[in-house]
Amino acid sequence: MPVESDFLVLGSGIAGLTCALECARAGRVVLVTKDRLPESNSRYAQGGIASVWSPEDSFESHIADTLASATATRSRWWCARARTGCAT
User: How do the domains of the chain map onto residue ranges?
Assistant: First the structure.
């Protein structure tokens, strides 16, 4: 049976669900997930989702914390781009 939609969203983590909600304002959304909706890496994130939320926090301290806990060199690569605002 064919399924028609205006948007196809892959993933049911926080990014996928946020995208699906935003896309739903403009059209029909199909959300594809690897398992059931609650099964996502966002749900299992240790310590939650890291972000800068308060005036006492800063992007610099967030990046330093992320780098201190990073185990892969790609994490350092992404942090460097987040600091400069460069996405490539």
Answer: 1-49, 50-88
